[in-house]
Amino acid sequence: MLPRHHRLTHPADYRAVLRGGDGRRRHRAGTDLLVVHLASGDHLPTRPPRVGFVVSKAVGSSVVRHRVVRRLRHLVRPRLERLPDGCDLVVRAQPAAAAASSVSLGAALDRALDRALTGVSR
């Protein structure tokens, strides 16, 4: 479980990361297993990074979706150190994530995060 201060909890927070409109720099990067949406800005540098997860019904049944979220949450926790303060991250699982191993999910997350962080820092 992620600590509460590292979680996106309100639908408006998800909308701000996915759709914009709040003046922050944002970048999206994806793989065949997941897509990451990263919003970063200088207006909240003292707040720790926050993370949210989106897993649609296309991924599978409720049991499968919750398993995917638990695996992604476990993979994101050690990567929080890479995120700058004040940024928000939304990880959206693709249908292929249901059958992927944790190793391949971790590798996909690393690739997507690297690209998103590079895009935001430009």
From TrEMBL:
Keywords: Endonuclease, Hydrolase, Nuclease, RNA-binding, tRNA processing. It is an enzyme of class 3 (hydrolase). GO terms for biological process: tRNA 5'-leader removal. It catalyses: Endonucleolytic cleavage of RNA, removing 5'-extranucleotides from tRNA precursor. GO terms for molecular function: 3'-tRNA processing endoribonuclease activity; ribonuclease P activity; tRNA binding. The keyword Plastid does not apply. One of its GO terms (cellular component) is ribonuclease P complex. It comes from the Bacteria. SUPFAM superfamilies: Ribosomal protein S5 domain 2-like. The keyword Hydrolase applies. Transmembrane segments: none annotated. Its EC number is 3.1.26.5. InterPro entries: Ribosomal_Su5_D2-typ_SF, Ribsml_uS5_D2-typ_fold_subgr, RNase_P. Consists of a catalytic RNA component (M1 or rnpB) and a protein subunit. RNaseP catalyzes the removal of the 5'-leader sequence from pre-tRNA to produce the mature 5'-terminus. It can also cleave other RNA substrates such as 4.5S RNA. The protein component plays an auxiliary but essential role in vivo by binding to the 5'-leader sequence and broadening the substrate specificity of the ribozyme. Belongs to the RnpA family. This is Ribonuclease P protein component. It comes from Ornithinimicrobium tianjinense.
